[in-house]
Specification:
about 350 residues; alpha/beta; Rossmann fold
Length: about 350
């Protein structure tokens, strides 16, 4: 499963119930003493409405080929794997205040995208400001932050439409949001099940719908990637979370159906199914359940747990032209856990 993806939301209107405290968010952070420039971040270059071709390889490329004194690989240029470039693309990442979502956002920035982080938190994690600054100063692009509640559909549509208005396009969505709860099936309440499904399935659906409307509006095609979980297809040994697992199975099936409907508009829809991911929250969980730290690595073929950084390439691949003939697919990145 993806313990670093998480729920994103805005200031909660009275009509929207709070997420109960006994729900365990899938990533953690502390609030900043001095908030970063969320709504006016340091700016890099604005994306162009008409996408440009990747740049040529720098002169050092040929020099290094001839001398063999250093690596000659400059990926993303016109010479080497240009299809992985996201230059001039505008991409949304939900649940990106921290954890897996923020790590993925930085990878997309490195690939050249202008990225909008959507999250429920009023302030993102301390690392967010560093990445904003790096985006503008080192990568020539921009990381924006929008606070929004996945259950506030009207506000969600309004924000995503405004992003489309600003750039005249929308190219991608990475839905890296969700909540987790461990409760035996005999003890689950209908309210808790509904909350899980409202966030993990309906929230992902409404975010994808809002993004697809803008992609169709501008006619620039696009790619939608949803973070599912290996738990969509297995029951986790020693981890009792029936509603969560069912919700992730719903995400996988949702992606297939959206892909079948939106393919005519050039919109691809795929999922990533992570295995166990070690985050700060999971490290704290291991203190309470040391047996999990011992047992979980033995349950996959590589004998280790994953880190958020190990999913960067999967996100860039699925959101770029490198996967242009791939849709309705589920990419398992679980160390072989579900193949036993």
């Amino acid at each position: 499963m993806a313990p670093s993806s998480r729920l994103f939301a805005a200031a909660r209107p009275a009509r929207i119930p709070r997420i109960p405290q006994h729900y365990r968010y899938l990533s953690t952070s502390r609030l900043l003493a001095t908030p970063p420039p969320l709504h006016d971040p340091p700016r890099g270059n604005d994306p162009q409405t008409l996408s440009r071709q990747p740049p040529p390889a720098p002169p050092q490329d040929q020099e290094h080929v001839q001398s063999n004194t250093a690596s000659a690989s400059f990926l993303g240029t016109s010479k080497r794997l240009p299809e992985f470039s996201l230059t001039d693309k505008v991409v949304l990442v939900s649940g990106a205040a921290q954890g897996l979502g923020l790590v993925q956002a930085e990878a997309l920035l490195e690939a050249g995208a202008t990225v909008y982080a959507l999250d429920r938190k009023s302030e993102p994690s301390p690392d967010f400001e560093r990445i904003q600054k790096r985006a503008a100063e080192e990568l020539g692009t921009t990381l924006y932050y929008k606070q929004i509640d996945v259950r506030e559909v009207e506000g969600l549509n309004r924000i995503i439409e405004q992003i489309g208005d600003q750039h005249g396009r929308l190219d991608g969505l990475l839905a890296a949001a969700g909540i987790q709860q461990e409760v035996p099936a005999l003890e689950y309440t209908a309210k808790d099940v509904n909350t899980m499904l409202e966030v993990n399935v309906t929230g992902v659906f409404m975010t994808a719908q809002a993004a697809a409307k803008q992609m169709i509006r501008f006619g620039n095609r696009g790619s939608i990637v949803m973070i599912a979980s290996m738990s969509a297809q297995i029951a986790n040994r020693g981890l009792i979370c029936p509603a969560y697992n069912a919700s992730k199975a719903g995400v996988v099936q949702l992606a297939r159906n959206l892909a079948s409907e939106w393919g005519e508009y050039g919109i691809r829809v795929n999922t990533i199914s992570p295995g166990y991911i070690v985050t700060a929250m999971v490290e704290e969980l291991f203190k309470k359940f040391p047996d999990r730290k011992r047992d979980w690595p033995t349950q996959n073929m590589l004998g280790q747990l994953s880190k958020p950084e190990q999913y960067r390439g999967a996100a860039v691949f699925l959101l770029s032209e490198a996967s242009s003939f791939m849709t309705a697919a589920d990419m398992k990145v679980d160390g072989g856990h579900s193949a036993w």
